[in-house]
Specification:
The protein is α+β, with helices and mostly antiparallel strands. The protein has 6 helices and 5 strands, in the order ααααββββαβα. Helix 2 crosses helix 3, helix 2 packs across helix 4 and helix 3 packs across helix 4.
């Protein structure tokens, strides 16, 4: 949290109580890929005076500084997760078509493919995003 505070301070922002509460919710629920509305619902329990616009503005600010990463699972919602290492590729996701569960896949086998694409096309790839759609083990029962 001190790193975030310093990063924001360097750019003229403060880590306000509300911003910290929003970031805490993301940290405490990092395996859930929360939407802004879900973050708002959780933050509101401890900070009833917070507005949804504050959540959206804070998420934009945190994304601007690569503190969080916005993901879209083609369900009409943006979701947010912590960005642990902005220099590396993001992990991939398995998305259940029945219950909507999202499972993170840390394994990244696309590096060889990326190297070939860069070499053949003279294109510098900075990142990639892969989503697999199917059915989780619970829904397959």
């Amino acid at each position: 949290m001190n790193e975030v505070k310093e990063m924001l301070k360097e750019e003229g922002y403060k880590l306000t109580t509300q911003r910290q509460a929003i970031l805490n919710v993301i940290v405490e629920n990092q395996d859930k890929h929360l939407s802004p509305e879900e973050i708002y619902d959780i933050v509101k329990l401890k900070h009833p005076d917070i507005g949804i616009a504050t959540v959206y503005r804070t998420l934009q600010l945190l994304e601007k500084f690569n503190i969080v990463y916005r993901v879209n699972f083609d369900d009409g919602y943006n979701r947010y997760e912590l960005n642990y290492d902005s220099e590396s590729h993001h992990h991939h996701h398995l998305i259940c078509l029945k219950c909507g569960k999202v499972i993170e896949v840390k394994l990244d086998l696309l590096e060889t493919l990326e190297n070939e694409i860069e070499k053949e096309n003279g294109f510098k790839i900075m990142d990639h995003n892969v989503k697999f759609f199917g059915y989780c083990s619970e829904c397959r029962k």
